[in-house]
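Read as chain and fold; for instance:
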Amino acid sequence: MTERALLLRVTLVVAAGTVPLPAPRSLAAQDTTAGKRVYVKWCAGCHGDGGAGDGPAAAYMLPRPRNFTGGLYKIRTTASGQLPTDADLLRAIDEGLPGSAMPGWKGRLSQAERRDVMAYIKTFSSFFADTSQHVVPLKFSSPPGGGTGAAALKVGRQFYDSIGCRKCHGDQGRGDGPSAPTLKDDADFPIFAADLHQNWRFRGGGAVEDIYRRLRTGLDGTPMPSFADLIDQKFLTDEELWRLAQYVRSLGPAAPPDVRDVVHAPQIAGTVPGSPDDSMWARAARYWFPLVGQGIHKSRWFAPAVSGVWVQAVHDGRTLALRVSWDDRTESPDTAWLRFERRILETVAGDDSAPPSHGAEPWPDQLAVQFPRRLPEGSGGMERPYFLMGGANDPVYQWRWTSSPRRALAGLARGIERFDTLPGAPAGQATYDHGEWRLVLTRALATPDTANEVQLEAGRAIPMAFFAWDGSSGEHGSRMAVSTWYFLALDRPTPPGVFISPVLAMLVTLTLGLVVVRRAQRRGARHVS
């Protein structure tokens, strides 16, 4: 618990000694016995039998599961240092906490089960049984108009700088500020500053109203403070805090990105762009692919720093250009992050049969794009290759890029430990800017080595998967972020003089794409099993 949170809690108890406050809803009115059954079945594996956040799965997670015994909660509608309301707890149970291992239970448990387990969770902390505490939600104002206008966002940006947001979240808001390598929570676990470009992963919600409430309440137990004091001290007004919230919201997309199965690469006139900052990429469709920690191969890794990649592709009939961009707080290797990396390695167990490694090293950032060695012939459908980097007798074709030395390679992966390089490396150019990597890989569609290198054919759905490593978070080898299988489709241009109704073209494309993808998924599922 922070010193400020502790002070506020003591103040509440002292004040209650002279001014009687209404008691909270009695725990006896809630069925904690039924709640315990739900908790033991669904919650104890992470949060522990005694609610201390020390279940058998906790060692693999960052952030760690909530320790219920201290009564300290990040996502609340109450003031900093106060307990959450029942509605706050139910909201977290119902909707989950994006960016963590906590799922939403609204579609998995009944309303009665969710209320019962909420009541049982409260029994872990004596603060909830303290009838002198009066849990009252704050009254929040409504957002001022013009929040998306240039003038409003300029004010928000001014306060982003003046009250120190950039120190942790970075100049462009990707969590790469100068203080970011030093951050830890009250339990001494390392903690990432939020990437403000990924508002769909905000715990507590990514709407402007949600962001404003987090600014008012703070995130107890973390370095993120409440800024309500600055309003009380007349350093900023409530409207200016709203402007800050509106600026933060403007950094992310208007809606969470859709996850689609197929990356379409249109055929362009002229030469494909080799630079990640070529103006042509501003006109190419972007596709978001989420990444998760791999849980198949030891050492298992459940806390990846890279949460996803944006992918774009074009071709000119001879060469493919694939642009992959992703948010990464560090241009690894970065010695300024070695202490942070060491804390991660000490906190997160990477193997379920051995103690965690404590050896921090200046690892590079890495990215891998995986394809099958060859596309199947005939009409037998699309067989996806082995999911996690192939096997000794069933290799997969990969492009691999590393930040140090800055280079791209092509080769055959025969499992995580073995990568046999091939001479036909793709050309690779990369740019790192304010917490974002932008990488372009280019290669001829057809190559002389038809036995080992996939031949990229227009009109085919080509299986494709992604892997990423953030070196400054201790990621290397099997400690990585992985995607599931997606598809790359090199589109053919419409012949000159042929007119196709846009509606008809869309229907045909969707139908064919779904047939290919569903058939591939069925075969892929059989292959994996």
About this structure: The two ends are 46 Å apart (CA to CA). The mean pLDDT is 87. The chain has twelve helices and 14 strands.
